[in-house]
Amino acid sequence: MHKITIHSSATPPTMNITARDIRQWHKARGWSDIGYHWIITRDGKLEAGRPMTKAGAHVKGHNTNNIGICLVGGTSPSGKPENNFTNPQWQTLQSSITLLSTIYNITPTKVYGHKDLNPNTACPSFNVKAWLNTHF
After folding, report:
1. What is the tens place of the pLDDT at every residue in 42-75?
2. Following CA atoms 130, 83, 117, 79 in sequence, which dihedral angle do they give, to the nearest 10 degrees?
3. Residue boundaries of the structural domains of the chain
4. Residue 51: other Cβ atoms inside 10 A
5. Where is the Peptidoglycan recognition protein family domain (predicted)?
6. SS3 assignment, position 104
7. Alpha carbons within 13 A on the beta-carbon side of 123
8. CB-based contacts of 58, cutoff 8 Å, min separation 6
9. What are the φ/ψ torsions at residue 71 (nearest 5 degrees)?
10. Could you tell me where the beta strands, DSSP code E, fall in the chain?
């Protein structure tokens, strides 16, 4: 693995979905499995998604050697992009990036938001590079 990409589930903060829900959505689209490797629920729980031994399906054209982490939330009740993640989610994201970066020797310059690799999306509803600058 060479990079990490952060995503949001594009769901309102009242919708506390899990990896199981996202897996069902992705399979309903005809995918073989959930697209993300890791999901962070609203309460900060880290849930396994796609096995790390398999390429993700989370950034078209950038999935090879790219770990996908999805934060549950990211939109307002009306569906607009919104940074509405919880403190437990931020804590789990930071510890997950620290661990994965250590295991795979990934520098902070190789951690992206989905919109950094695909400017046609607002995902993950916050500036990952700015967040990294204050946390790493």
Report:
1. 999 999 999 999 999 999 999 999 999 999 999 9
2. -160
3. 3-135
4. 10
5. 1-118
6. helix
7. 20
8. 5, 7, 35, 36, 66, 68, 70, 114
9. -90, 130
10. 3-8, 38-40, 46-48, 66-71, 111-113
- For 46, how many CA atoms within 13 A lie in the half-sphere containing its CB? 14
**How do residues 19-50 score in pLDDT, each as one tens digit?**
999 999 999 999 999 999 999 999 999 999 99
Strand partners, 11: 74
For 110, which DSSP code? G
Tokens of 18: 């899990």
- Cα separations (Å) of 43 from 24, 100, 114, 125, 126? 21, 20, 22, 18, 19
Please say if the pLDDT value at position 136 is more than 90: no
45 contact partners, CB below 8 Å, separation of at least 6 = 92
Topology of domain 3-135 in CATH is Lysozyme-like (3.40.80)
